Structure formats: C-alpha cells, structure tokens
Amino acid sequence: MQLLLWARQHFSNVGNIVDISIAQGRVVVVGDTHGQLADFCWLLRSHGPPTLENVYLINGDVDVFNLLPLATRVNSEVLVLHGGLSRTNSATLAQISAIDRRRPIPVAPVNAEDMLFFDLMWADPRAVDGVGLSAVRGAGCATFGPDITRRFCEINRLRMVIRSHEVPKSLSGVQVQHAGRLVTIFSASSSNLDTTLTSSTISWSPGTAHRSMEEDDT
C-alpha cells in the first residue's frame, strides 16, 4: 500500500512523456502481465534485479494506470507506449505532451485530443497502409498501418515504437511489424481467454540492436 501511495504522488507530478537516457547498461521493456505475479517473478529472475544499469520499463496494466505517463522515450530514439499510434498521420510528441491525462480515458472521443489519448491506449497495428476500425475490439477502436508508423517516426525523429496491449497472433510474446519500426511485447503467459502464451520482454543497450527474450511457460 505504501508503494502505491508513493507511486500516486510521484506520477501526479510527471509529464506525459518521460525521457530516459542510458549511457551504459540496458533497458528491459516489460509488456502486459495481467497481474500474473509468477510471470513477473520469472522476469526478475531472468534479467536480474533493477539497478541503475539494469533499468526496467513496465509497459503493462498496473493499479495506478490512470496516473501513468502516456509514453517513455529512450535515448531520444525509441518510444514506448501501451496501445498504438493515432489514426491521423500527423501526431507529434508535443501533442502527446499536451494531453490532459489525469482523467478517465475517453470512451467516445469527441475532439482531436480525446482521439489521440484514446488511440495511444487502445489502437492496434494492421498489415496494410491506412487506418480503419477494429472488428475485434469494437467501441471505435482504431487500427493503423505501416504508413502511419513510418510517418510518425519521421515526424518525431524516432527509430522505432514499442507497444504492448495485444497478444501477438502467433501467440509468441513478441511481434515485429511495419518494416521493423513497430514491436509488440506481451509478457503474460496466459490471457483472459485462457490461452497459453509465450511471454516475452525486449531489451537493448546503447549502440546495439534490440534483443527479445522469450520463455515458454507451457
């Protein structure tokens, strides 16, 4: 409880985008765990305890979800967020920073800020260019194609985007899409559909390519 109270106070004073600079060591990105403690303990055992040179970036659902920053930018080149990119092709980091996030996530977006907020939480990628509505999620949830990801990275001078939110169709814990510019990470070994999955994390060090790590918990 003390940890949650500290987190509430801390994140209330943090901006929408957190910048992390790693000169040495590595960053380990953890996707959705769906509250499965055994999976999180496995991650700690596999990657080691958090230190200044072994930084954990937890990108899944937690109890203070509504207070969390909307994204984290690592070394000014990799953006980590929960859901997906905006259905527009012109979203900027400045627009994300300007969102009023300390409120419930909009259920039915009525303006550009609400739509950007909504898509950052719930949008999913698709294989073809353009945007559309998700036939799986419904409720106005959008899908975005490789052109949206490419344009977003170009405008905001990013190398890639890492997201969670969605179980990869292969049931693997990691899926690389959109010419390598978009990576989905899912770190739970089962979903709310009682499906057995391969949980995964992604890590990288300055000057090296990203590296995924999977664990088959079947």
Automatic annotation (TrEMBL):
- Reply yes or no: does the keyword Manganese apply: yes
Q: Which domain of life is it from?
A: Eukaryota
Task: Report the InterPro entries cross-referenced here.
Answer: Calcineurin-like_PHP, Metallo-depent_PP-like, PPP_phosphatase, Ser/Thr-sp_prot-phosphatase
- Source organism (scientific name): Emiliania huxleyi (strain CCMP1516)
The cofactor named in the record is:
Mn(2+)
Please provide, alphabetically and separated by semicolons, the GO molecular function terms listed in this UniProt record: hydrolase activity; metal ion binding
Q: Which UniProt keywords apply?
A: Manganese, Metal-binding
All copies of domain Serine/threonine specific protein phosphatases, residue ranges:
1-208
Which Pfam family is one of those matched by this entry?
Metallophos
Protein's recorded name: Serine/threonine specific protein phosphatases domain-containing protein
